[in-house]
């Protein structure tokens, strides 16, 4: 719903866009008519079809719950659902900066009940030992030449390197990168996201090096050291604020990585709690159960205060629910 004019016309101009909007609205309304849901659950609040589904739900009087599936930024549209299950207070603060990101005369503006329910992906691997490898998580924005130079230095210092590509990144790019480092082939591994879960990847590493990626937060929660290594200039420095929040450390060389690993550096608990509200609670590592319990309470009209406490007020939410600490 929010894109540049250049991108808008690249998609085919106003006529094609209008046809797409009508088509998606008809599909959304048809799905709602077929299933007559009491609640629609979305894991994305900013892609085109999801926005059309939200509008269709609003017109049909059906409630919408949004589950945060990845890190968010202030470029997202205004939070406009009935229930927003966010990772933590940091996500809520970012959405507070999105209040003006709304289309004129939008029918989906809504003040939600915000439920701070922790990171939803299963990454509690801290009790299974710490692997020896250094994970390098890549995506399509990365400068692979810079990653190759860093990897070469890490390998030369005696570290194992495990590459983990983004699911939408070409597999051959990482295979070629590993091939160029083949003189260290006994210390180079590739973690394929189509075959190995992020949990298994994190189980095999002591630390994770990445640019602007949510995997740094996942590494922190798994008690693996997250290191921020920026290789591109297409997005602002520390786009998700992980360095500013204190859960990741900036590194510029293999020597810095080695030194921090030797110091066994880990992010402190306070910023972890801000980014994932289950940290330090009985629900840490059981976020799927918490999610199921929360949705069941919503559907059965059971007060959320049976599990959550009413937290500090927010200007964009009717109420904010937060988990009590241990």
Please report the total strand number as a whole number. 12
Please tell me how large the radius of gyration is. 21 Å
Protein structure class: alpha/beta
Percentage of β-strand residues: 15-25%
Q: Please write the string of helix (H) and strand (E) elements.
A: HHEHEEHEEHEHEHEHEHEHHHEE
Strand order of the largest sheet: 1-2-3-4-12-11
> Terminal Cα separation, in Å?
41 Å
Query: How many domains, as an integer?
Result: 2
Helix content: 25-40%
Unreliable stretches (pLDDT < 50, length at least 5) are 1-10
Mass-distribution shape: globular
Number of helices: 12
Tell me, rounded to a whole number, the average pLDDT: 86
Protein model, in words:
The chain is α/β, with parallel strands linked by helices. It has two domains: 5-119 and 285-322, no CATH class; 126-273, 3-Layer(aba) Sandwich (Rossmann fold), CATH 3.40.50. Helices cover 37% and strands 15% of the residues. It has twelve helices and twelve strands. It has helices at residues 5-10, 13-35, 48-60, 89-96, 144-156, 171-180, 198-203, 215-221, 242-245, 254-262, 269-275, 287-299, and strands at 39-42, 63-67, 83-86, 113-116, 133-138, 161-165, 188-191, 205-210, 225-228, 249-250, 309-310, 319-322. The strands form two sheets. It has a six-stranded mixed sheet. Strands 7-6-5-8-9-10 form a six-stranded parallel sheet, with helices on both faces. Strand 3, helix 4 and strand 4 form a beta-alpha-beta unit. Helix 2 packs across helix 3 (48-60). It is globular and about 60 Å long. Mean pLDDT is 86; it is low at 1-10.
